[in-house]
Amino acid sequence: MLLGIRWGSLRAKIIAWSFVPTAIILVVVALVAFYAYQQVSETLAIERDQALAYLIEGSYKIALIARDEAEDGDCQVSNCEELLKNANAELGKAIDDSKQNNYVYIFNHLTNAWKFAANILGANLKKATADDEAGDDSDGKNIPTVYSLGQNYPNPFNPTTRIDFQLPEKKYVSLKIYDVQGNLVTTLVSEELDAGYHSAYWNAGGLASGVYFYHFVSGSYIATKRLLLLK
After folding, report:
1. What is the pLDDT of residue 86?
2. Which end of the chain, N or C, is surrounded by fewer C-beta atoms within 10 Å?
């Protein structure tokens, strides 16, 4: 009986010790895998940061070229000084955000700078829509077939934003800004305009941050949208 107890105890120890090499191997494998994961993650992070740096540098140079061309070129709009000031302001904001690696804001500011510069030279940059494709192009211009009021861009904005709208026919247009209490803040457009694509700019530099509304009326078409001034 005593021999049976000793053998049972010894067999238990042998079985227990047989798991030790396996456990050690598993721990080693886990450590190696964790180290490899860290190395790969660091490598990917470095490559990502380098790619973003190249992209930011290229975007900044493109925005600078557009700004310089707008500054030296023939102005095609009535508010060139304001647009040029806005382009330079957006470039400055991009530089400030680059110090904190705010990539989304960097590209947003660089895009805004490029758009402001392009507007000076007469380019009205906007997203293509199905209505654009369906327009009459017989006179070399794409005329929209319906009334439409676009969302202001950028939004949120500080302090200038652009509002795009389209007219299928020559019509009187009213575009006004209101505060949340319904008080008239300013009138952006109050005149008859030709059919086509148009843009209005609003500089809210002297106003407090908050929600505002822009109200558009042309013929029987009426639309109101919200915009956010964020300083």
Report:
1. 79
2. N
Phi and psi dihedrals of 10, rounded to 5?
-65, -40
What gap in Å lies between CA 174 and CA 138, rounded to an integer?
Answer: 28
Environment class of 221 (CB within 10 Å of its CB; exposed 0-12, middle 13-18, buried 19+): middle
Q: What percent of the chain has pLDDT over 70?
A: 67
Long-range contacts of 68-74 (CB under 8 A, 24+ apart): 69/117, 69/121, 70/116, 70/117, 70/118, 70/120, 70/121, 73/120, 73/121, 74/121
pLDDT digits (tens, 9 = 90+) for 122-149: 666 555 554 444 444 444 456 788 899 9
- φ, ψ of residue 9 to 5 degrees: the values are -65, -40
Distance (Å, rounded) from C-alpha 199 to C-alpha 78?
12
Helices and strands (H and E) in the chain: how many: 4, 7
Model pLDDT for residues 189-211, shown as the tens digit of each residue: 999 998 888 889 999 988 999 99
At 211 the three-state DSSP class reads strand
Which residues, 6+ apart, have CB-to-CB distance to 61 below 8 Å? none
Amino acid letter, residue 140: G
Which residue carries 């660091």 as its tokens?
42
Mean pLDDT of 44-64: 71
| The dihedral formed by the CA atoms of 206, 127, 94 and 161, expressed in degrees to the nearest 10 | 0
pTM of the model: 0.47
At 112, the pLDDT band (50, 70, 90 cuts) reads confident
